[in-house]
Amino acid sequence: MRRLMLLRHAKTEHDAPSGRDQDRRLDHRGHGDATEIGRWIARHPPFPDTVLVSHAIRAHQTWEVAWEAMKDLVPKPVVELMPELYGADAAELLQIIRHASEADPRRLLLVGHNPGMHELALALTGGGDAAGRKALADNLPTSGLAILDFAIDDWEDVAFRRGKLVSFVSPKLLKHASDE
């Protein structure tokens, strides 16, 4: 069994002072949302063994803020910054996941960007949580987290429509659930 967690970066400023998209930073809401998702991850094991993070500042900040919120409760994973995650489409992301077989983590977290992350989550999902699938069909929002399980022994065997959506959460969904 392998678990894949797909986390979209948190909410950002509209423009970076440098003018480069990769340099956009989290805004105030983004910091709060990344903290909330980090706390949620800390309350819902199993935890990632390896985290692959886009080199874009907003993705790296999302991971750092989320990790700060969970680090006292979660074993420290291996973290790698990967420029390849920036702008990657679903097929490219799938190849990155398949290459995880070299390190062979049982649980892998990717922190990246739309539209690739959303397209990948949709393409990999072949069943699982019906309400989560319905919510995910609309969007993978900022700080959105899709968790999929695969009945495989090697990341090389990850394929479209073979994942079971275990959970889909976002700060908005978490807030809505707490208001009920």
Topology, element by element:
Elements: E1 2-8, H1 28-43, E2 50-54, H2 57-70, E3 78-82, H3 90-98, E4 107-112, H4 116-124, E5 125-128, H5 130-138, E6 145-150, E7 163-169, H6 171-179
Helix pairs in contact: 1-2, 3-4
Question: Gap between N and C termini, in Å?
Answer: 34 Å
Q: Do you know the CATH architecture?
A: 3-Layer(aba) Sandwich
> What's the total count of β strands?
7
- Return Rg in Å: 15 Å
Q: pLDDT below 50 for ≥5 consecutive residues: which ranges?
A: none
pLDDT averaged residue by residue: 94
Q: Into which percent range does the helicity of residues fall?
A: 25-40%
Q: Which class in CATH terms? A: Alpha Beta
For the sheet with most strands, the description reads: 7 strands, mixed
The CATH topology: Rossmann fold
- Principal-axes shape call: globular
Provide the β-strand percentage band: 15-25%
Q: Please name the fourth-level CATH homologous superfamily.
A: Phosphoglycerate mutase-like
Strand line-up of the largest beta sheet: 3-2-4-1-6-7-5
Protein name: Phosphohistidine phosphatase
Organism: Bradyrhizobium erythrophlei
Region (Disordered): 9-30
Biased composition (Basic and acidic residues): 10-30
